[in-house]
Design goal:
Helix content is 36%, strand content 16%. By secondary structure, the chain is α/β, with parallel strands linked by helices. The strands form two sheets. It has an eleven-stranded mixed sheet with strand order 1-3-2-4-6-5-12-13-9-7-8, with helices on both faces. The protein has a two-stranded antiparallel sheet with strand order 10-11. Helix 2 runs antiparallel to helix 3 and helix 9 packs across helix 11. It is globular and about 55 Å long.
Length: 455
Amino acid sequence: MQAQASKARTGGYFTGRTVVDLGRALRAGTVTAAGLVEGALASISELDAGLGAFVTVAPEPALAAARHADAELAAGVDRGPLHGIPVAVKDIIAVEGLPTTMGSAHYAGHVSTSDAECVRRLRAAGAVIVGKTTTHEFAYGPTGDRSASGASRNPHDPTRMSGGSSGGSAVAVAAGLVPLALGTDTGGSIRIPAALCGVAGFKPAHGVIPADGVFPLAATLEDVGVLAGTADDCRVAYRVLAGLPAGPGPAETDVQRIGWVRTGMLFETDHDIERLARGALSLGGAEVEEIELPDVAGIRAAFSAIQDSEAYAVHADRVTADAQLFDPEVLDRLRQAAQTPGWRYVRALAVRSRLQSEMSALLSRYGVLALPTTPVVAPPIGARIVEINGTATGVRQAVLSLTSPWNLLGLPALSVPVGMVGGLPAGLQLITGAGHEDLMFAVAGKVSPNWPEQT
């Protein structure tokens, strides 16, 4: 059973409508690309003021591109599964002619003069860009509530975080404003908001989707990825962005053994979330074994050293010259990052190489690894302490804890919705080796989400 997005309390035009289904309707002539864009624009106009998903909407270019897509389909030109599909783009990714602000006062008024390569690939596939989505400032935060344009808000409860840094993209999909959105993921920035907002989010193996035209955070950790209502929609978009043949859905792939990662060794995890995620793995005869990751302390230390060093290298001149333009919390993180000595960075790179080899051996035994995406549901906007199983802990450390290892290791990672805990969505995370993405998506197709509180 394909894991579907949860129904947010505010439902736009695309609520419950998948990219795959919309593609069929376009080719059957029951909808038009222009009609889809009009539906997106109307939903954004009606709902987004209370959600903060978008920082820029481009009605005229979007409608013009949609009419062109319709004309091509009428003439027998079909560019593939994203032809005529409205897409939103995270505001650290360049879109020609539109503002790209990085969520920061440093880039107020900045307009991109060319498309990022991932956007060029979307356009070549016939997709229609409708606007830019809110990002945590410079994508440097997992909460989604530190941006010059304001917080992006969880559609299930607008007093709650969207997660970040691709929070606006997750909100736009979860609220039904668009069926598909681009994000970036350095330590969980796609998967965290996907889980907290109840949608699917995928980051590919490192370097598979080009990052040209994407403002960097930590270049050796981050990747462009996608958010959508279902894992299958993520798969479809991923293949377009990676330059792979569209093809049909993956053939039914038998997974013999899945490794269930013991989250306790990574971070304390809400017991209800863990039970829900584990119970969603409805895999027939597949064997699920509990496993432990090698050198968890080394994973955590190496990730922090690499992210801190690379992020500060990007922003060092801005911190010196225009510190007052940063959000105070982001500035504080950067100043802390500046304290990481060079020798720690060099050692972290060596540790990463060793860990990648050890993880490759683990994945040779288990085709897919599984664990919850986040150890908590969405905390309140602005909260920096959260309680997990009766113990108070930092929000940022918590929400990054189960996602960041896979960025360090450069592995493909997917979050799919599995149901609600306390009225808020939770996610299951699947990990596989580079080149085995179809196996992971096949497992995702068997996930059985439980939405007991929905009507």
